[in-house]
Known about the structure:
This protein is of the alpha+beta class. About 20% of the residues lie in helices and about 25% in strands.
Amino acid sequence: MIKVEFLGPIGEKSIEIEATTLEDVATYLQGLESVKNWLDKCAVAVNDEMTNDLTKVLKSGDKVSILPPVCGG
Length: 73
């Protein structure tokens, strides 16, 4: 199982899903109405390492973080 966490204003609880690549995660998240509008604006980290490689292979226990853009001063 892969843990997917949603940070900041996305406001969703973490979920666990079956996935073998980051593309599998993206496909699953596109099916979630409350999340899909965030996806094109967010950065992604796997085990706290930023990535945009959808072919990245995931293994059980990995954590995918969905990071919305932030603004600060």
